[in-house]
Amino acid sequence: MTGGVTVEPAPPKEARDHRVRRRRPRLRLALAAAALVAAGGVAAVAVFGDGGGSGAGAATGLPPATAKVTKQTLKDTRTEDGRLGYGPAHTATSQAKGTLTNLPESGDEITRGHALYEVDGDPVVLMYGSKPSYRPLRIGTEGSDVKRFEANLSALGYDGFTVDDEYTADTADAVQEWQDDIGVAETGIVDLGRVAFADGPVRVDTVQANAGEPAAPGKKVLDYTGTAKAVTVELDTADQRMAKEGAAVEVTLPEDKTVAAKIDEVTTVIEPGEQNEDPTTKVEVTIWLASGKAKKAAAGYALASVDVTFTAGERESVLTVPVSALVALREGGFGVEVVNGGTSSYVPVETGLFADGKVEVSGQGIAEGVLVGVPK
């Protein structure tokens, strides 16, 4: 006995070969490594002997420390840098020939029925819709583009026609009235390039042309965004699991103002490489601050850096142990070393969600308050 501690003689080699030992995590099994790295945790790994099946295996000696099995709600979260602004920018390109005679300024907000820019002194009018114009509209034209235009004409207060897929003489009469109001020739025909469609009101982001330059189909005129505040986040493709449309997120604004929001759009973006570098693929997440509270909180900021907390998974009222309590079993899977008084044994467990250094576990004899072994 030394210092009150009994030192037992070393067992013979045969006994040592069959003894169950708890190892430190210098060399982790591949299966354990994958799960633990995903959870951001490090666990000591033991090889659980030949007990097999669902039976518990005896441990030799007691672990250096213990932790209780606890019941809690686990959240797999990650916080990423985001940009507060007006969401993704889109490009307005000319569909008409002529000369650009008037352009808006960066920051201008434009709504339905107003000029986005001018060609040859005539306005290119903003209307709302998810698809661009692709042909002139005249009596006899049929299709969803007719209905989209007629819906806008009706929303601007013009009537005497039916909003449907058919461009009729009644539609042409209303168009002539509209053309008179915007100051262009009253032909009753909507020329290609007279209207520019966007999802809603727009805010001019950057102007890519100058007054006096020629306008031609395909010429980039300006970039625009929506008028509502939005947060955009760029994620690596490996983190795409964090971004699901409709999923709840928490946005922390400057001065630690926190608002709840939801993911509206998830888009894959390919960024060209510089010089001889390969292009990189990113996941762009857009979060519109649509609630009254979010709008009010963000109103004082035009552009700002923010933090966005994503939740990839959540499990309510589950049994958890520290990730470091897991041991890799020789026959596969994981177990924990359950301590009962002066003895301990290895018990197989099923693992669930990993988060914040904890892991969800279940198994025979695993209950709230049970002691399990952990490294010091």
Structure commentary:
The protein has 376 residues and is mainly beta. The protein is built from 5 helices and 25 strands. The strands form 3 sheets. The protein has a 16-stranded mixed sheet that branches. A hairpin with an 8-residue loop joins strand 18 and strand 19 (280-288). The protein is elongated, with a radius of gyration of 33 Å. Mean pLDDT is 86; it is low at 1-54.
- The end-to-end span amounts to 24 Å
Mean pLDDT, nearest integer? 86
Q: Approximately how much beta-strand content do the residues carry?
A: 35-45%
Q: Helix proportion of residues, in percent?
A: 10-25%
For the CA atoms, what is the radius of gyration? Answer: 33 Å
Describe the sheet with the most strands.
Answer: 16 strands, mixed
Number of helices: 5
Q: What is the global morphology?
A: elongated
Q: Which series of helices and strands comes N to C? A: HEHEEEEEEEEEHHEEEEEEEEEHEEEEEE
Low-confidence runs (pLDDT<50, min 5 residues)?
Answer: 1-54
By DSSP, the count of extended strands is 25
Structural class: mainly beta
